[in-house]
Amino acid sequence: MNEKTDKKPIVSRIVDGSVSVDTIAELNNLLKAFPNDPWLQRIFADLLKRDKSFYAAADAYGAAAGLFIKKDMLLQAIVSKILEWKILKPSVREALAFYSSLHERKSKNTGVRDFFIKMTYPEMMAIMEILELRHFPAGNTLKRFGEEENDLYFVVSGTLEEAIYHRTQKEGKLQKKSTKTLVENDFFGEIYPFNEEKESQSSVETITRVEFAKCSKSGLMAICRKYPNIKRIINTLYQSRSTSDPPHVPGILRETVRHRLPTQVNIKIYSDTPDKAPLNFNGFTENISLGGACIILGGNYKTGYFDTLVGKKVKIQIYLAVAFVSLSILGTVVWSTGVSLEGRKTVALGIQFSGMTDADRRLLNSFHYGSEIEQDMIWSLWDSMMEKTHHAMADR
What span, in angstroms and rounded, lies between the C-alpha atoms of 194 and 233? Predict the structure, then answer.
């Protein structure tokens, strides 16, 4: 399976909370398929910590930090190191080695990246000391209009929506001015300049499960008294946002939350015995590449049974809803794991394609997910279909 493309659906769903992997054994199955994915390493560390395997968790957090650095995800690397060092306090040599590793990669600078890269070693360690890590599920309001601004938030993972308001001059009524989607490596919170007391002009709500790292205004002010350079770096951070914010693009939120348009599939799994009929299952995938797909089955299945199917030959019927055609592609089951999807236990299968015609390859290569209107229509049909499926299962 093409690791760069095929791992995105299941990993993204685990990170945003729409799919839960609750056991170390389940996550180990995914790690075998995608050993270099930093998010899986990070989630693995969280599970180990939950199970009180603290030393193993510290090692996994360290591994996640290294993988995040390779992907130029410095904020996520720093958060992973904070979690590691909460378990095992580092030596000065280890901390200096991590600081140096953050500066080894020469990539395009961004506001949040610059915030950490431009610090000296003592400055960065001081900031890491006051960073508070928090998680919130979807549907939580983190900041409300009119509240006093006391914190600076860095988005580690997840998606939020910031609604910006203003009051009309004549009647003083509160009106929404605009909305903005916040994703990983964005920040929010109007705490600078420090000598100004500000009331929030926006509200921020979580759209998916969100992790963020928070710095209090008072904590930053205390650090700036010791390290005046931090004040200049914070000023640069806010300037970078005002000069580089992209325009609001409708549909970004849908793409971030839904990842990809769900594509219905049917799987035939063949037995090693020639005269035995193949097994048939229905499911969906949110990302199809020329190399394979991650398919989530649409019913309640026993996970242990599917562990025996790794290596089995399959035939997948893929229904490209926007193109109104279907494809039949041969493949092999390369991994399976149990997942929780919207409160239901089901199974995710990793399929590697092994046979594809040139015509199918061209169609997949040019497959697009349609306009926003088309997506709304297809999502309505998809939601309706899923609702009927749930009712049918409940009636059994």
Answer: 13
Helix H segments across the chain? 3-6, 8-16, 24-33, 38-50, 54-70, 74-87, 92-104, 111-117, 121-130, 217-226, 229-244, 252-258, 303-307, 358-366, 372-395
| CATH of 132-255 given 1.10.10.10, 2.60.120.10, 3.40.50.300, 3.10.20.540 | 2.60.120.10
Chain segment 173-209, per-residue pLDDT in tens = 666 677 888 999 999 999 998 998 898 888 999 988 8
User: Where does the chain hold its CATH 2.60.120.10 domain(s)?
Assistant: 132-255
Residue-wise DSSP of 187-228: EE----STTS--B-SEEEEESS-EEEEEEEHHHHHHHHHH-T
On whether the pTM is more than 0.85, the answer is no
| Domain range 3-106, CATH architecture | Alpha Horseshoe (1.25)
